[in-house]
Amino acid sequence: MLRIYGINPSRTARTLWLCRELGIKYEQTQVSFADQNTKTPEFLTVNPSGKIPAIDDDGFHLAESMAINLYLAKKHQSPLMPKELQGEAKVLQWSFWVMTEIERPLLTVMLQRMPPPTDPLAAKYFRERTPLNPAAEKESAEALLKPLAYLNDHLAKNDYLLGKEFTLADFNVACVLMWAGRAKIDLTPFPNVQRWLTTCLARPSATPK
Ligand SMILES: N[C@@H](CCC(=O)N[C@@H](CS)C(=O)NCC(=O)O)C(=O)O
After folding, report:
1. What residue ranges in the chain does DSSP mark as E strands?
2. What pLDDT does residue 124 have?
3. Which of 174, 178, 140 is nearest to 155 (CA)?
């Protein structure tokens, strides 16, 4: 049995979305960073780095949202993961790209612009960890412009990241870019990104039941 550790409003959403997309059965243990449950001795045996998501797949422990998605797609022989080496390498390329070029600045902008969580404990933790910082918000918003332009140019020539088909590359990049709405990123200068992201987020699996 696959057990997913994490709460829905977190990067665990990436693992949960993939399980819905691939029809993988799982059980979820609600581990939240807001109440420091990511630092309990029990959870640290699953992920010693104390972060969610993490999985226990019949005793195999794995962390890092992108690694988990790549592992699950391969294990379940999903058609989203290209069979040939070069297609798989492109999936890795885009997955690393989104984590190194997009994730940090997008998260910074989102945490600055989104309303605090309604739960009082989570709200306290939220602004303690992320005090308002207009300079960081501006710098991060600007840092997104080049990678978004690069993605927009790529998608001008391709329906999807690897060409004509939706693959795990699209999935993993959309898993991160789905924060763009809450980060109030204006995507109108990047119409191909906007078109592509709308298509990815329209997949039935994108919406939790
Ligand atoms: N690179 C990791 C990042 C994991 C991560 O930072 N998760 C956050 C929640 S979204 C967390 O558990 N934070 C707890 C903490 O920093 O103490 C991934 O993609 O899975």
Report:
1. 2-5, 27-29, 54-57, 60-63
2. 79
3. 174
Which is nearest to 169 in space by CA: 71, 102, 81? Answer: 81
Taking only the tens place, the pLDDT of each residue in 156-189 is 999 999 999 999 999 999 999 999 999 999 999 9
Distance CA 161, CA 176 (A): 14
Our answer on whether the CB atom of 90 is closer than 6 Å to any ligand 1 atom is: no
For ligand 1, atom 2, name the residue with the nearest CA.
64
| Helices 85-97 and 65-75, axial angle in degrees (round to 10) | 160
Please tell me if the CB atom of residue 126 comes closer than 6 angstroms to any atom of ligand 1.
no
Question: Candidates 15, 47, 51: which one to mutate for ligand 1, based on the most atoms within 8 Å of Cβ?
Answer: 51
- What would the mean pLDDT of 135-142 be, rounded to a whole number? 98
Q: Does residue 37 line the site of ligand 1, with CB under 6 A?
A: no
How many angstroms separate the CA atoms of 45 and 63, rounded?
12
160 ligand 1 Cβ < 6 A: no
Q: Which atom of ligand 1 is nearest to the CA of 53?
A: 20
CB 65 within 8 A of CB 17: no
User: Which pTM does this prediction carry?
Assistant: 0.96
- The pairing of strands 2-5 and 60-63 is unpaired
**Is the C-beta atom of 57 inside 6 A of ligand 1?**
no
